[in-house]
Design goal:
The chain has 144 residues and is mainly alpha-helical. The chain has six helices and two strands.
């Protein structure tokens, strides 16, 4: 599998992954989860689960969904209020903005849909405030 975008936050994380072999994402997420839990529990002399809720995944079925999801993931620290600028180091955003060169992320999946990286930056800046507002409004929803 390839990592397209990611954001690691204090209490949760997001990935956009591209599967290149059968069950590649499933194996990656299993290894990531179990190795991190073992490390964290050993380091902190504790037992048990770390994350609230269950692992969730969604199949990205359109180009539009992929692009907006890339904004949600790359700017997730802003959307959740952890940081107000683009300097969050635990995200693929610096790679997309050309502020860091890291071969961990396959940026071409997203940037290939824009004429140049500046157009993606403009898309980020136009879309992220709306996504943040939408996220803030979720706390007012009543779920059954």
């Amino acid at each position: 599998m390839e990592i397209v975008a990611y954001c690691l936050n204090p209490n949760h994380y997001h990935f956009i992954l591209k599967q290149v072999s059968e069950k590649g994402i499933e194996r990656f997420m299993h290894k990531l989860g179990t190795s991190h839990i073992k490390y964290f529990n050993k380091k902190n002399k504790r037992n048990g689960v770390l994350f609230q809720g269950v692992f969730k995944s969604v199949h990205i079925d359109s180009n539009e969904y992929l692009l907006y999801l890339s904004v949600y993931v790359n700017k997730n620290n802003f959307i959740h209020g952890y940081s107000t600028d683009d300097s969050w180091p635990y995200s693929s955003l610096p790679d997309y903005l050309g502020k860091r060169v890291d071969k961990l992320v396959n940026k071409n999946v997203i940037l290939g849909r824009f004429g140049n990286p500046g157009q993606y930056k403009e898309f980020l800046e136009n879309s992220a405030p709306h996504l943040r507002e939408k996220k803030e409004m979720e706390k007012y929803l009543i779920e059954e």
